[in-house]
Amino acid sequence: MLAAPSSHVVNAQDGTLENPSRTYEKKLGDLVGLYADADAFAKVAETDGGRIVYEVQDRHPQQDQGDLIFGITLMQPGQIGDEFFMTRGHIHATGNRPEIYYGESGEGLMLMESPEGETRIIEIRPRLMCYVPPFWIHRSVNTGDTPFVMTFVYPSDSGQDYDVIAQTGGMRSRIVSDGAGWKEIPNAAYRPRNKAEIAAIYATGDRA
Questions:
Q1: Torsions phi, psi of 173, nearest 5?
Q2: CATH class of segment(s) 11-207
């Protein structure tokens, strides 16, 4: 039986999607280990650990290969030390699956990293579309002082792998405030992947 066509209103101001299949949120207390300044994180989390950093609403028409998942992400502004609020970040579990992000309101960026450790950054603002190619690890960062809202779409059989970032001590770069905007700095805790780890990521594309 064919899936039914549908339409869904996107509210760019409050970051909501009409009639989502799923809604989830990440609070500051859920993001232990994400930020470089552990002492600053602990201090803020002690009094404000329930603060929502980002929320996602998405729609899953079908899980079959060939369909799409689409939704909206709402990221709140904020910093831990000089590091901007960010998402956990992921690579697709089936690594050769891409993703599209579209800026709705606010401003931020997409921090991307190849398995070999090359980094790319695309700034996102309203009406700007960001293409994340297959096999790129990616993380969203709110570099503004207002909520950052993006819509997204990706293949329904992509899956998410969050451990790929944790296993290397984070992504290769961090995004911090320079007083007037943002800048990219090296992540001192980062460990480059070895050849076997890189090959294992590319092998996930063979699952399809």
A1: -120, 155
A2: mainly beta
Place of tokens 């998405």: 58
Say yes or no to pLDDT of 19 above 70: yes
pLDDT of residue 2: 80
Per-residue pLDDT, averaged over 149-159, amounts to 95
What's the sign of the alpha-carbon dihedral 134, 140, 141, 142? positive
For the chain, list the strands marked E by DSSP: 10-11, 16-17, 22-27, 52-59, 68-75, 79-80, 83-84, 99-105, 108-113, 119-124, 129-132, 137-142, 148-155, 173-177, 182-186
Q: What angle do CA 49, 33, 35 make, to 5 degrees?
A: 85
Q: Averaged over 188-196, what is the pLDDT?
A: 98
CA angle 88, 47, 171 (to 5 degrees): 20
In 3D space, the residue among 38, 27, 32 whose CA is nearest the CA of residue 78 turns out to be 27
Task: Count Cβ atoms below 10 Å from residue 4 Cβ, excluding itself.
Answer: 6
Domain boundaries, the chain: 11-207
99 with 170: CB under 8 angstroms? no
Block residue for tokens 């996602």: 56
Residue 206's nearest CA partner among 96, 67, 64 is 96
Mean pLDDT of 65-71: 90
Round the CA-based radius of gyration of the chain to a whole number and report it: 17
